[in-house]
């Protein structure tokens, strides 16, 4: 047999050697994998960075690639590497260490896919990258709006944001205030008598949907009775059932004010209406109101010097609960413990609560509007100063 020359052998061997050098797409440092990683990071940065910030990035590369595990049978590689993002026109760079797995893909348009091992792979890189392009980016933005420095641009941006957000918030508040004003117009006639009574020093009940108690003047000393274990404050007044059920009993809380004080000497003390018989729907009858001045039989405020010296007392009554003729309880402030958390369920409706809530919100909103106007004025002055510079 004729020997093949070395030259002839080289012709046959060369293609085989080249074929053996072709890199698998699942290798950690394959072109497909590194290009895919670079593209993924670029897409993530484009979605998170401010518009135009990517123009100040020169390169995204994958370096320091290490193969941690190679499973030939399963067609996968476990890898770690560093993604480096470089700023244009400077030596600044940001990086993110990553771990990823390259897998073989069958039947698709690509031979492999890359899966990132950590869920936070892309969580922080945008912050790192923006730090390295911040100054040139803001300087460019400043020039775009006719300013000289990045500091001026930041002041310009913040002033515009303040005007925009404050104007939007004002619009929301003004719309809400219109609703609150309409609510108060409906509620004010229902609470005006109560307000007048309290201002004139009379005892009255907070307006509600179920019962009404005629305002009455209570004398601090003449109202005291000693028929019980301890002192009680008692007085007679007309009670009206505004509900659709017969009422057998009424429980109240009393807030007791002395003379001209705006602070009650006792807040939320127990009180009740002693009904001689069931009070029918729509019925008005003179009944006795009884107030316990003691806290669990101690701290009786009628024994204090302040009470004994007081010339007048004004008592605000708040409905707590009632029982109808079937013995069922209707609660205005139902409190129950839910695994140590106290929940409040409003069963009855206290008109006064709705009125105070709307009034307080309206007053708070008026203060907010003044604050927002001040913010807008200050921001407009900042813009004027920047323009003048």
Reconstruct the topology from this structure.
Elements: H1 6-21, H2 31-48, E1 57-71, E2 76-87, E3 93-104, E4 112-116, H3 125-144, H4 150-199, E5 204-205, E6 211-213, E7 224-225, E8 232-241, E9 247-258, E10 266-274, E11 284-291, H5 305-309, E12 313-324, E13 329-331, E14 334-338, E15 341-345, H6 351-388
Parallel strand pairs: 5-12
Antiparallel strand pairs: 1-2, 2-3, 3-4, 6-8, 7-8, 8-11, 9-10, 9-12, 10-11, 12-13, 14-15
Structural class call reads alpha+beta
Q: Rg from C-alpha positions?
A: 40 Å
Distance between the termini: 95 Å
Low-confidence stretches: 1-22
Question: What's this entry about, in short?
Answer:
With 389 residues, the protein is of the alpha+beta class. It has helices at residues 6-21, 31-48, 125-144, 150-199, 305-309, 351-388; strands spanning 57-71, 76-87, 93-104, 112-116, 204-205, 211-213, 224-225, 232-241, 247-258, 266-274, 284-291, 313-324, 329-331, 334-338, 341-345.
